[in-house]
Amino acid sequence: MVGTENVLVDAPARLARATGLSYLDLVRRRSPRAEFPVPDAVVLPAGPDEVQAVLDVCVEHDVGVVPFGGGTSVVGGVAALRGGKTAVIALDLVRLDALVSVDAESRIAVLQAGVRGPEAERLLGEHGLTLGHIPQSYERATIGGFAATRSAGQASSGYGRFEDMVTGVRLATPRGEWKLGVAPASAAGPDLRQLAIGSEGTLGVITEVALRVRPVPPVRHYEGYALPGWAAGVAAVRDLAQHHALADVTRLSDVDETEVSLALNAGLKTAALRRYLAARGVRRPCFLIVGWEGTAHDVALRRRETARRLKAAGAVRVGKALGESWRHGRFAGPRQRDALLDRGVCVETLETAAYWSNVDELRDDVRAALTASLGRSIVMCHISHAYETGASLYFTVLTARDETDPIGQWQRAKAAACEAIAGTGTISHHHAVGVDHAPYLSAEIGALGVEVLRAVKSTVDPTGILNPGKLV
Predict the structure, then answer these.
(1) Residue 295, strand partner residues
(2) CA distance 425 to 443
(3) Where does the chain cross the membrane (predicted)?
(4) What is the Cα–Cα distance from 126 to 137, expressed in whole angstroms?
(5) Contacts of 439 (CB under 8 A, 6+ apart)
(6) Average pLDDT over all residues of the chain
(7) Closest CA relative to residue 240, chosen from 66, 71, 383
(8) pLDDT for 383
């Protein structure tokens, strides 16, 4: 179906598509004794028709199919689970790498699922357009992966989450091709696009995505503020959100994360900055990164209102150096993690979201659960995305790795954190469900909700070949 050269069975090719990039994935890859599932082959189709043809063959021979994009899942979303099948393939969409069309009048672009974030911006930039979707996984993640996991970019307050950008989607399913999206809005029943988005490869393989795009912004302005403590910072961000004055990027670090930023960022002239803030009554600062993108007039207008409200909240402007430092270093996390792993550190992240009335309690509960499980550790938190009704909380955890049981060490800590989240916040704001969060899904959507998802899956994938063991 795809040509012999595009069916790979060598060990390096199979191992490269066997896991994502979670801490547990990396620990398993580094251990000569660790066991994890590996696909029996890697198949590289060249377009939507070939993807459909591959699925047809896999249905006929009852072969499991794990869609594979950038491989950046941190929740087991691309693990090569068999689900009772005798064989499983990794369906690598890297050759689906085209900009299919641009409708400049409607500001809609259609991109194939395998296009990575930077390439999407390059292709759109040739038409003077941008998607504006920049999550931390941007360098490796793909358009199809963004859609399959309901990704949230760092500038989502301005550009929207990925599901807000999707105007149409094309999928290959075991029952045939499925196309959704014909108008900017519709009352023709429930929006099935939203069923496909976030389906994590369990209901179909996304092959093309139609997306709302915008002109490339001529001005990008990022800067930093310091607020006197977490409570003051949360109140300030809530005020911005509820008065429609959020910057495109609005990111609030708690005291611990701020302290780590001060310790690691030599360019901030830490001692002088501490004196500057202390003189203004800010002795335990929480850094706030704000960034705007657009025309000079639009940026100036919006920045003025944001700055006015932050000043009223007691924020002290730190300046462009802090904002630009964050902007230029925002993709460094995965590389820093590798360096920490080399030095025997357990380092991982997790995230959730809650209504404003629950944000502080949820942060405290998750921090307490992680600390109780891990013992001596650093638990940092920041608000990564803000909404009128609530915000996301993103935790970064560092502790000494238990060399006798490194996998169990983090599994116990993550389970404790998930138990603390369940019932108060969502089990995932943007990392998706995958394998890791599947046990907690029913607590969020109810047993009936899980039945609904299973019923849909049985309709489009009656033999269960698509991404076995994920989501439901």
Answers:
(1) none
(2) 11
(3) none
(4) 23
(5) 418
(6) 96
(7) 383
(8) 98
281: left (phi over 0), alpha (psi -120 to 50) or beta: left
Please name the residues in contact with 358: beta carbons below 8 A apart, sequence gap of 6 or more. Answer: 390, 424, 425
Residue with tokens 């699925």, as numbered in its chain: 55
| β-bridge pairing 205-212 and 108-112 | antiparallel
Helix/strand/coil (H/E/C) assignment for every residue in 170-188: EEEECCEEEEECCCCCCCC
Tokens representing 18 are 């066997």
- Tell me which amino acid residue 339 is: A
Under a CB-based contact definition with an 8 Å cutoff, are residues 304 and 111 in contact? Answer: no
C-alpha separations of 464 from 113, 114, 159, 175, 225 in Å: 22, 23, 36, 11, 51
Nearest-angstrom CA–CA distance, 317 and 299: 17
Q: Does residue 422 surpass a pLDDT of 70?
A: yes
| Residue entry with tokens 């462009």 | 320
Q: DSSP letters along 16-31, please?
A: HTS--SSHHHHHHHH-
Given the structure tokens 């150096």, which residue do they identify? 321
Q: Kindly tell me the number of DSSP H helices and DSSP E strands found in the chain.
A: 17, 18
Angle at 182 between CA 122 and CA 105, to 5 degrees: 50
Tally of CA atoms within 13 A in the half-sphere of 157 that contains its CB = 30
| Nearest residue to 67 via CA among 75, 52, 77, 57 | 77
Name the phi and psi angles at 107, rounded to 5: 55, 50
- Neighbouring CB atoms inside 10 A of 463's CB total 14
Beta bridge partners of 42: 8, 90
- Residue with tokens 């924020």, as numbered in its chain: 315
**Cα maximum dimension of the chain:** 72
Do 429 and 152 form a contact (C-beta atoms < 8 A)?
yes
Angle, CA of 459, 87 and 92, to the nearest 5°: 75
Q: Are 221 and 292 in contact (CB under 8 A)?
A: yes
Calculate ∠ Cα 355-294-135, nearest 5°. Answer: 50
Cα–Cα dist 55/59, whole Å: 6
On whether the CB atoms of residues 385 and 426 are closer than 8 A, the answer is no
Structure token digits, residue 388: 């009128």
pLDDT, tens only, 380-391: 999 999 999 999
**Cα–Cα distance measured from residue 357 to residue 145, given in angstroms and rounded to the nearest whole number:** 32
Distance between CA atoms of 275 and 280, rounded to whole angstroms? 9
Each residue of 206-239: pLDDT tens digit? 999 999 999 999 999 999 999 999 999 999 999 9
Residue 335 confidence class, pLDDT cut points 50, 70, 90: confident
pLDDT at 246 over 70: yes
Give the chain's length: 472
